[in-house]
Write a structure and sequence with these properties.
elongated; 0% strand; mainly alpha; single chain; 51% helix
Length: 73
């Protein structure tokens, strides 16, 4: 399939209603090989993303003071 055919196909798909697009995706997903559809092993996924934020660690800012409120009666 050339790029122009894909673009025309995409334009046509975007004209469909959301439910029709979902049905199209479901029909296309059925045609994929089983090993492509199945999720990767969780350990492999973890190793692939491990350390992605190593240069930008998550830090918790200091806690703000507690606001005084009326007592609950």
């Amino acid at each position: 399939m050339n790029n122009m055919t894909f673009e025309v196909l995409l334009e046509q798909a975007q004209k469909l209603s959301p439910s029709e697009r979902l049905r199209l995706v479901e029909l296309l997903a059925v045609t994929l090989p089983a090993d492509f559809v199945q999720p990767a092993h969780w350990r492999a996924a973890l190793k692939a993303t491990y350390g992605i934020l190593a240069d930008d660690p998550i830090e918790r800012p200091p806690q703000l003071p507690v606001e005084e409120r009326d007592p609950v009666e």
